[in-house]
Amino acid sequence: MKDVKMSLSIEFIGVMLFLLAGMVSSCKKDKGQVALGTMEVKITASVAQFADVSANQTTADHLTTSRQANAAQRRRLPIDKDFDLTVTWSPVTTQVTKAESMVSGKKARTISDMKPNTQYKLLVYDATGHYVAERDYTRGLESNTAALLLHGGATYKFVAYSINSTSANAAVNFQDDNNKTLDGTSISSLEGTADFMYFRKDMLISSSGDNYLNIVFVHQFSEITTTVDASATGKSIKELEAAFDSHYPNASIALSDGTITRIGTAGNLAVGFTGFNTASVTGINILNGQSTTATLTFSKLTIGTLTRTDMPPITNLNITPGVAYRLNLTIEPRDGNLVYLGQYATKIGDQIWMRHNLGADTSLNPDQNPSSAALLGNYYQYGRAAVVATSSTGSGAISGWNTSVAADNAWNSGTEASPTKTAADPCPNGYRVPTAQEYQHLIDNSSASNIGTWANNSTANTVGAAKVMTSKTDPNVKLTFPAAGYRNAAQGILYWRGGNGAYWTSSVSGSNLTRFSALQNSASIDQSNNSQPANLSKATGMTIRCIAIQK
User: Fold this and answer.
1) CB-count exposure of residue 45 (10 Å: 0-12, 13-18, 19+)
2) How far apart are CA 142 and CA 41, in angstroms?
3) What is the pLDDT of residues 50-61, one digit of tens each?
4) Which residue in 476, 477, 455, 474 sits closest to 466, CA to CA?
5) Hey, is 437 helix, strand or coil?
6) What stretch of H or E contains 505?
7) Distant-in-sequence, close-in-space partners of 29: CB < 8 Å, separation ≥ 6
8) Across the strands, what pairs with 126?
9) Could you give the CA distance from residue 454 to residue 461 in angstroms, rounded to a whole number?
């Protein structure tokens, strides 16, 4: 009997020790510590760039997407008689190295850090797809979230998502809260403008050593960066209202595989432009849709004082989910020849220039090859309206040559950016001597070439050579600048006729004068020091090509 009691006591003590051990283990789990037979999974997160469609996609969700379907699209559309719109639509491509990883079974993409404080959620399921745990993380503060403890030797299914926001994330939805499964997990009524990113991976948890889950999010909607550039017009964009079609207001996401179901009726997505009152504005949008015939429509555009409400739409845009696109719209002046304020003129880059040198015979074709003496025009000293020589004046010194100089603002009482014509300006009504900035604009919007035979010494004084500035947008539009040479500052002696076209600007920078130089091998803006009277100073006689005064 005594032995039986002792045996029962030993068994009772054993049971109590077992229960006590279980209680200790349970307390450890409640405190988030690694319990016997469980391992902590540490989390890192980064973001993949948008899908690269520079080569054929081979994944199931982009099986029919080809290089041709996503190639850059470029076209030129007329806005009105004065302006054209150059459109370039292209997917953003990235250079991928061997070190860059495959993301969720898709083609290699560039990986970048997720921005700090971005919110994201991680859901964990066992090998059969049943719910195990979930965690809400903040990028860079993952250690503030309770440790994720899983059993070593077991395989788990990990799903993570984010809307790329530092202040919010989408709510998860379970089909059955009492029986949560991966197949029944989704996000419902997600805003179509959310930058939804998705990750899915199966992983075996090691029973020894560290376990790291490297989350690499992949964008699921399209990002479109729209830039409108009006710098070629010399004017600022005051207002611009535009919208893409093919955008759905909401979407639901099956988190088992990231399948997107678009909700609602496809409609317009307004482009949120920034940077108004400058020459270029940009808007970035997330678009929830897929189309090969998407359209961007404009409801209003104001450039300078010109407002248009009938801009041509941009049609047939290819949009593939998960791809980032650039839409570059360049507003360019329509170049051409015209008669402006009674003068034969040419418009290049939204600037109107007289086709002939000041004082030239305007009855002649200014572009004839070779040029002629009658197209050389008159010679003027800086800041004065008086003609100091003509094309028929002898090449030697001119008696009574004026070596005094005019004030720096003699031809421009305004600024370089906003010039104002003065009474000393010799150009006809509605025209003035151009600034260096305006000549540079001409250079930027044209291609230079030569006609005639060019002289190779300063005293050759031949006729026929000229520099031709041809519009980059219309090869039939050109301005021809004869190589008229110049009359030197000291005596008015003719130099470099046939080898140098020296054209006055109204610009003075410190002690330096600025001129347009039409040379055999270049067309450029050059400077000379006014303190060198025997060289190219204010007392030098040079030709003038007038530019129109445009409001």
Assistant:
1) buried
2) 12
3) 876 653 332 223
4) 455
5) helix
6) strand 500-509
7) 35, 149
8) 156
9) 10
9 alpha-carbon distance from chain centroid: 83
Separation of alpha carbons 445 and 350, rounded Å: 9
* Rounded Cα gap, residues 240 and 230, in angstroms: 12
> Do the beta carbons of residue 293 and residue 315 sit within 8 Å?
yes
CA distance 276 to 288: 26
CA distances in angstroms from 61 to 64, 107, 190, 258, listed in the order given: 8, 12, 20, 10
User: How many residues make up the chain in this entry?
Assistant: 551
Distance (Å, rounded) from C-alpha 248 to C-alpha 290? 10
Q: What is the pLDDT of residues 207-257, one digit of tens each?
A: 988 999 999 999 999 999 999 999 878 789 999 999 999 999 999 999 999
- The number of beta carbons lying within 10 Å of the beta carbon of residue 465 is 27
Mode of pairing for the β-strands spanning 343-348 and 336-340: antiparallel
**Three state DSSP letters for 31-64:** CCCCCCCEEEEEEEEEEECCECCCCCCCCHHHCC
Q: Tokens for 106?
A: 């898709």
How far is it between the farthest Cα atoms of the chain?
Answer: 150
Q: Domains of the chain by range and CATH? A: 36-51+96-219 (2.60.40.2100), 66-91+221-333 (2.60.40), 336-548 (no CATH)
| Spatial separation of the C-alpha atoms in residues 359 and 338, rounded to whole Å | 19
